[in-house]
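Service request form, structural biology core

Requester: graduate student, group of Dr. S.
Request type: structure prediction, single chain
Budget code: on file
Notes: please return the result as C-alpha cells.

Sequence provided:
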Amino acid sequence: MGHLVGLDADIIVTTEDSLHEWVDYPYRIDGGPDWGYPIKGQRRKVVAWSRTPWVRSTHLAAPSARGRFVHGTTVVAGMPFQLLAVCIPWQDAHVRGGRADRERWAEHLDYCEALGPAVAESLRLGATIVAGDFNQRIPRSRQPHAAAVALDAALGPLHVASAGDHPVGQLIDHIAVSSDLTVHEVTAWPNVIDGERTSDHSGVVVDLR
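Core staff response, request fulfilled:
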C-alpha cells in the first residue's frame, strides 16, 4: 500500500483485494463477498477507498455483476462525485471454474449490458468516474469486436482517460470520466515495484480538475 499512499489520491480503487484497516483511507465500500466462486474470508473483487465518507452505496442485481460492482457517492473539495468501481469478468469467467456453465466472454458481455444503465443513472446524478478492472485493452487489441463494442456502449459518453499506449504497455485497468471533469495528467506504473511483484496488472492514476 505504500506506493498507493504516495500517490496522494483522494479516491483509490483496488481489485482482487481484501478488507483491512487503512488509516490513510478510512472509508471503504466494496462489491461484496460472493461472485460465484468459493468465498475466501475477506477477499473482494473490488474495493473503493476514500479519505472522505461515502454518503451512499449501491450494487447491481445482475448475476454477472454480483460481487464485482459498487456505486458510491463521496464529496471531494466540496464537489460530489459518483464513483462506479468495477471488476468486469475476464473472458473465461465461469467457463471452467466457478459455475462452469458459460461460454467465453459471456459473463463479460452480460456485465457490460448491466453496466450501461448504471452509468446513465450515475450521469444523471452528477460528475461520474468509472474505475477498476475493465479486462479489455482500449483501443481494441485482441479481444473480440463484440466485447469492445459492448464496453464502449456501456461507458456511453464517458472518456477513458487511461486508454492508449503507456510506457508499461496498454492497460486493462482503466479510469473513465464524465465530460464535466478535466483530465490533467495520466500516469501508469508497472506491477513490479522495487523488485517486488505487487499484482498481475499495471496500475494507473488520473489527476482530475
